[in-house]
Write a structure and sequence with these properties.
globular; 7 strands; alpha/beta; 7 helices; Rossmann fold; two-stranded antiparallel ribbon; five-stranded parallel beta sheet; about 40% helix
Length: about 200
């Protein structure tokens, strides 16, 4: 398989990473594989649901990043991978996995993907999506209630206790490591076209 172009898309929770990822993927149907760091949360079956709810999911140690690194290495070698599937309502990995086939372009999305040196070194292009904190927390509130079965109180408690401090400690400092910074409140068309151009050049190489 020809060289795989790996793009890391980072940024705080609710910054617009998934929207950017989807816009890029739609421009290259059948040529882009996507891995989400969120899928790699460590499974803690020995804990009760209440205990799992109290864990810090915004610390780098909460994620099995070493498995994500191995999966990227396999995709780069032309091998399909079976990614974990995480149930955010139960805070558990599901027994099933999701097969991801190798593609010329791989997008990796997550808040902490630039924080891990080995993972960061695998990215040919690093993109950081930023948004004002108020916008991010409102987006997270909407997503967690509609998609992850959370309550307003649980989302706000988690934001204050772990999301905000971990963002300041681990996520925000990685902004300076990015090759491209995308302000999600602005018109992102120019940023999307820049990324599309880079990908097209890679595919033609």
């Amino acid at each position: 398989m020809e060289k795989v172009f790996i793009i890391g898309i980072a940024g705080g929770t609710g910054s617009g990473k998934t929207t950017l990822t989807q816009r890029i993927t739609r421009r290259f149907p059948g040529e882009v594989a996507v891995l989400y760091h969120d899928s790699y949360y460590r499974d803690r079956p020995e804990l009760s649901l209440k205990q799992r709810q109290q864990l810090n999911y915004d610390h780098p140690d909460s994620l099995e990043t070493e498995l994500l690194v191995r999966h990227l290495q396999q995709l780069r070698e032309g091998q399909a991978v079976d990614c974990p599937v995480y149930d955010f309502a139960q805070y558990r990995r599901l027994p099933k996995t999701q097969r991801v086939e190798p593609r010329p372009v791989v997008l990796v999305e997550g808040i902490l993907i630039f924080q891990h040196p080995e993972l960061r070194s695998m990215f040919d292009l690093k993109v950081y999506v930023e948004a004002d904190a108020d916008i991010r927390v409102l987006r997270r509130l909407r997503r967690d209630i509609l998609e992850r079965g959370r309550t307003v109180d649980s989302v706000m408690q988690q934001y204050q206790s772990t999301v905000k401090p971990m963002h300041q400690l681990f996520v925000e400092p990685t902004r300076q490591l990015a090759d491209i910074i995308v302000p999600s409140l602005a018109d992102t068309s120019a940023a999307v076209e820049l990324l599309v151009s880079r990908i097209e050049s890679q595919l033609k190489a």
